[in-house]
């Protein structure tokens, strides 16, 4: 079995394409020159995943600009208070921007950007993407498969996860809400932060290495206070593994 056909079967096993979509992909690969097979896979996955997204509430909206096959973009975030990131089968690396510009660079796949008066939406499908994000009031992340890691500078952080891996530092967050089914989420917050933590995780796990004053702890729930409390971390996940750790201090530049 060649690598491209193996890739299709991996996508099927990971739930990124349906059985019908996998059959269509395998059929499209027959008789296609090898150098064209990657393009065939990308094009068909984009169409298939777009159909899947349309069946998921709040996952697809109006789109101002769409890019296929990789892009580099710079978005002025002046006056923008919200950022929505929707990722399907994406490997993403995120870091803070040192100005009010959002920088985006992606490889093959699909990226759609929609700008409104006070918000920006970035939707990515089947790609590898790098983002630099300025400090923002609210960031909402919706992840279906894939891997997302780095640091997001947002005062309010909302994460919805359906499978996949999340490994994020949240140095500026005062409110963190985590929802989803399956997946592994590791979030790092400042150890001197003041948080009330409430977690429900049937069929999953929750853990923290922070000095939390535990008020309630069962096999599927957790409640406690970090330092003085006040800000909120809310976890409501099924079959997911969630870990809250201490954010390591950044090294000062010499």
Question: What tags apply to this protein structure?
Answer:
single chain; 254 residues; alpha/beta; 2 domains; 18 strands; 17% helix; globular
Tell me the β content. Answer: over 45%
What is the CA-CA span between the terminal residues?
Answer: 53 Å
| Tertiary shape | globular
Kindly provide the radius of gyration, computed on alpha-carbon positions and rounded to a whole number of angstroms: 19 Å
Overview of the molecule:
The chain is an alpha/beta fold. It folds into two domains: about 5-55; about 65-245, no CATH class. It is built from three helices and 18 strands. The protein has an 18-stranded mixed sheet that branches. Strand 15 (about 210-215) and strand 16 (about 220-225) form a beta hairpin. Helix 1 (about 5-15) runs antiparallel to helix 2 (about 20-30). The longest helix is centred in the N-terminal third of the chain and has 21 residues, at about 35-55. The radius of gyration is 19 Å and the shape is globular. It starts with a helix and ends in an 8-residue tail after the last strand. About 35% of the residues are buried.
